[in-house]
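Question (not urgent): is this output format expected?
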Amino acid sequence: AVARSFLQAISKDEAVAPPLRVVQIEGLAVLKIIKHCKEFAPTLVTGQLLGLDVGSVLEVTNCFPFPVRDDDEEIEADGANYQLEMMRCLREVNVDNNTVGWYQSTVLGSYQTVELIETFMNYQENIKRCVCIIYDPSKADLGVLALKALKLSDSFMELYRGGNFTGEKLREKNFSWMDIFEEIPIKVSNSALVSAFMTELETDAPVSQGDYDRLHSSTTPFLENNMEFLIKCMDDLSMEQQKFQYYYRNLSRQQAQQQAWLQKRRTENMARRSAGEEPLPEEDPSNPIFKPIPEPSRLESFLITNQVSNFCGQINGVAGQNFSRLYLTKALHEN
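Got this back:
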């Protein structure tokens, strides 16, 4: 085999970087994320993810929380200085300080927003591959560890950079609302010493508190909140559809005006030709009726559709689990 220099190996690896397959996160980082999000719930919080990008695995080895920010520019600047100072301190104590993304809390899975996309694009300017880990504290009461790792799809980032979310462009790219985000599988990793310590801490009881939490049949507040969020999303989606209906009405009205103007100009030109005069041009860009009407962006409606799908999935999942619990309870009573 031909020997390669280190620079040649690095340049080739960058050219053929494998796709991201899994996010491997340390157990300590998971506990930090859960603790931060639960302490401030229902306030939404964010934090920095630190680790390494190794081949098709994105390793998250540490994290730290961001201070709660207001809209004040001075406070926001202090937050940026805090991040830089925190990463400098981590570097001095020989802790991973390579940014690989961020984490944030959510309420009932309502995270598909334009702000999330803008944050992703800002990270992409300096980091080739980054993820956002979403944690939902409201699901912890149901015995569920609601961690989710997301990234933007390459096709969506190409469209977003072009700033063209018209129906024609989306049909050309065969792009749908399901193609905005990609969910990456999460693998929780612990060192051998931590695994041994956790084994020592395990009780001899056949069931844990998490098992009892999963048997709770009272999920009415969770379903009510999901239904309220779903109704709000349907109202927002209806408003987006009204924008498009208004656009198509204006477009139809403009096309009718253009046809009437062209018909009038052609009749006038026929009269001018009969009189031996030069015909007037049939195109007049200065005329307001020929000014194109901008088509509304479909990004917001795509994000709302994502939210609707998410809420429907959560309602379906919780309702299915409740039916299973009811049948189990019924069988126990009969016995």
